[in-house]
Amino acid sequence: xxxxxLRRAVAVAAATLLTASGLAACGGDDDxxxxxxxxxxxxxxxxxxxxxxxxxxxxxxxxxFEDETGIKVDVQWQGREVLTKVKAALNTDDxxxxxxxxxxAIKAALGLDDQAMDLSSVYDMDVSGEAGRTVRDAVPEAYxxxxxxxxxxxxxxxxxxxxxxxxxxxxxxxxxxxxxxxSDFTALFDQVKANGQAPIAQDADLLSYDSAxxxxxxxxxxxxxxxxxxxxxESAEGWDAPEVxxxxxxxxxxxxxxxxxxxxxxSKWPAMEKAWAADKAAFLHMGSWVPYALGxxxxxxxxxxxxxxxxxxxxSAVPVTTYGYAVPSAAEAPDAAxxxxxxxxxxxxxxxxxxxxxxxxxxxNIDVPxxxxxxxxxxxxxxxxxxxxxxxxxxxxxxxxxxSLNQGLITGELSADExxxxxxxxxxxxxxxxx
Length: 435
Known about the structure:
The protein is of the alpha/beta class. The chain has helices at about 5-20, 55-70, 80-90, 105-110, 135-140, 175, 180-185, 190-195, 205-220, 225-230, 240-255, 270-275, 290-295, 335-345, 345-355, 375-380, 390-395, 395-410, 415-435, and strands spanning about 40-45, 70-75, 100, 155-160, 165, 200, 280-285, 305, 320-325, 385.
């Protein structure tokens, strides 16, 4: 597991810029906090729904934590829009003490406005039931470098990497020899179509999925850190680079060649991924949540496998999003919340996340179910970079506007040239207002 040198440099530069501009995403003040000795309960707003497998593990951990510490946890299962609710509450007396979501969303919602505490001290805390073992033992430093805030505002318990999922039953030859290059990948499509399947399932109405696909291709041709640099440039001249056109042309060609499952441009999520699970399409570009989200819908003999996003040259780094805990700066019981974070990062609970919820944890010593072995190996053998090259975390408003262009490219409404023209216009306008 490695972090590209260029990405490290970009992270440092971003932190320096934020510090200089007074927007450093560090711990904020804890004036709202009660004395540690008085923090007998805390409020936790979770990104999960109570019925989800991850939530069941968290519920069990909370019950155990309450029994062992006497600290009461008021957990509210808010769902994926939890940060929208947190932002709305920031200027009220109803701010949670603990929240979980993906790092890009945490940074965009809280970190950029200095509304997230520095959790560096949590990494030195002991985890539950393991003498001498700390949170740092469960979270390798490599993941710190995916944190592009000035300080460690998130403690991850879940790691998601976007990759391409498929059936080892239908395509057994790919299990030991997956396609490495984009041309290797697309060369499979004639066979796939001959098998009566569409090559790719894509829920094009979900803009984050569209951006994940386009951004992955752009990082492949530009190199890690350079998509972030392109978007950071007020002139927007980087969109004219031949490497940009190489990636955009490749994605645009998928629509031209009818490589998507029919209806992808007019259906509603999750119609296409469910159709993939029903064997209507061969490949699905998706995060590490595929096993728990779609696994129950797969045939018992489906033999789920995945491979890294194909290359266009030398770049093979894996786009990763860490999901975990953040503590708002206005929290009243931050110390109690931090105690729970350290408790939950124990091997007992991370193992349950792996075995019961079938998600990847940051701890490389946790055994993973067979269904996740491909991704575990992929993370161990390649460089890692923050998903979307960090642009969603650092420029949420701009990337929201670019996301509609990504959708247009995928659905065939925009050619690569038209995309570039519109992207330059959007970016120039954004920086005129925000430069």
